[in-house]
């Protein structure tokens, strides 16, 4: 008997925008090739019951565990195989998935929208195998692209850029830059125990501002395209710096202007994370800590970037002024494991000591009895 999935369906071409408003228990209709870890975590947190993707949720181009993460959370994942004549964006209509078909309720009953195919552990493992088989080719292509662009972009890292005056406050200060890379909230929670917030100037990259505020940090700066950060965070008092591209286009400026918020623009090569690192370096920050910033090949393939020249150059430039805290939360588990092992060792030592003490007491007792006789 086929499983029936019923619920309201919501759609957005940008998954990060959909996550902001989709209600719990809904079906998410995506256009997202190779669902990334941040989107997967966000969809899980929002409590969606199923995903229907008009693109391919896992292509097998590179290995990732994001579909497994969704399936483990009890979220059904489907890819569209054949789309019917879809007329409009879904905004909460009642939808039904049954027998590999997506139906949406209309005036005349349920209308078939698409034929779909579901993911399971077998499909995921096959795609992981495909990714492993093509890894050497993918890696070679990625490195070649990175080196080609590094050759073109290296000159831009040798000349100090004119920065808005708001960055003057970074001079000789410790700076924490937070982006929404996979596991960033766990890393941030752990880093909070190690870093003195009073001594930090906190820079949030786009939507990381919301995660920071949820954990009790108040961002001093918000940098980026401003497309995945809530209005509440934008209005929290942080200095707003819109990423402006080489052609002068600044996608965040339109949104901030419409909200009546003041902001600065800054044009530097690379991602908004790279821009935050470069701005901190050129502002003579004493030290730069990173949480959630992307760097590995998979991180960038998730973002649809075939190379990472600007990130390599920005990190080389910052050098020993930079500490990347990516994955630091994993130390907590290891630390607890060490404590448990040491407690077990202590328990064994105490047990042995008690046994020896008992044996000695028994010997003394017997010796006393013998002497008395």
TrEMBL record:
Keywords: ATP-binding, Kinase, Nucleotide-binding, Transferase. Residues 192-235 form the Thiamin pyrophosphokinase catalytic domain. Gene3D superfamilies: Thiamin pyrophosphokinase, catalytic domain (3.40.50.10240). GO terms for molecular function: ATP binding; kinase activity; thiamine diphosphokinase activity. GO terms for biological process: thiamine diphosphate biosynthetic process. SUPFAM superfamilies: Thiamin pyrophosphokinase, catalytic domain. This is Thiamin pyrophosphokinase catalytic domain-containing protein.
């Amino acid at each position: 008997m086929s499983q029936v999935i019923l619920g309201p369906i919501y759609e957005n071409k940008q998954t990060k925008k959909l996550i902001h408003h989709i209600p719990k228990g809904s079906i998410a209709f995506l256009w997202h090739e190779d669902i990334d870890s941040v989107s997967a975590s966000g969809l899980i947190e929002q409590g969606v019951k199923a995903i229907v993707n008009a693109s391919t949720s896992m292509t097998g181009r590179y290995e990732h565990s994001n579909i497994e993460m969704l399936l483990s959370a009890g979220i059904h994942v489907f890819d569209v195989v054949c789309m019917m004549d879809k007329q409009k964006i879904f905004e909460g209509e009642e939808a039904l998935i049954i027998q590999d078909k997506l139906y949406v309720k209309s005036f005349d009953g349920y209308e078939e929208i698409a034929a779909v195919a579901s993911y399971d552990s077998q499909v995921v493992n096959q795609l992981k195998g495909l990714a492993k088989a093509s890894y050497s080719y993918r890696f070679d292509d990625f490195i070649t692209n990175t080196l080609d662009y590094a050759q073109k972009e290296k000159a831009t890292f040798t000349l100090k850029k004119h920065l808005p005056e708001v960055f003057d406050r970074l001079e000789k200060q410790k700076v924490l830059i937070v982006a929404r890379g996979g596991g960033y909230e766990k890393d941030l929670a752990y880093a909070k125990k190690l870093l003195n917030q009073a001594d930090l100037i906190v820079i949030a990259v786009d939507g990381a501002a919301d995660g920071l505020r949820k954990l009790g940090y108040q961002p001093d700066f918000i940098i980026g395209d401003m497309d995945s950060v809530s209005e509440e965070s934008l209005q929290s008092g942080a200095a707003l710096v819109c990423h402006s591209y080489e052609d002068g286009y600044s996608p965040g400026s339109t949104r901030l202007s419409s909200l009546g918020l003041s902001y600065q623009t800054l044009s530097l090569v690379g991602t908004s994370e790279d821009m935050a690192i470069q701005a901190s370096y050129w502002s003579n920050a004493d030290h730069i800590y990173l949480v959630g910033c992307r760097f590995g090949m998979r991180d960038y393939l998730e973002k649809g970037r075939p190379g990472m020249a600007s990130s390599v150059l920005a990190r080389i430039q910052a050098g020993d002024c930079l500490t990347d805290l990516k994955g630091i939360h994993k130390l907590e588990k290891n630390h607890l494991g060490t404590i448990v092992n040491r407690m077990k060792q202590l328990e064994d030592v105490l047990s042995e000591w008690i046994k020896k003490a008992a044996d000695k007491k028994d010997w003394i007792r017997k010796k006393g009895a013998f002497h008395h006789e």
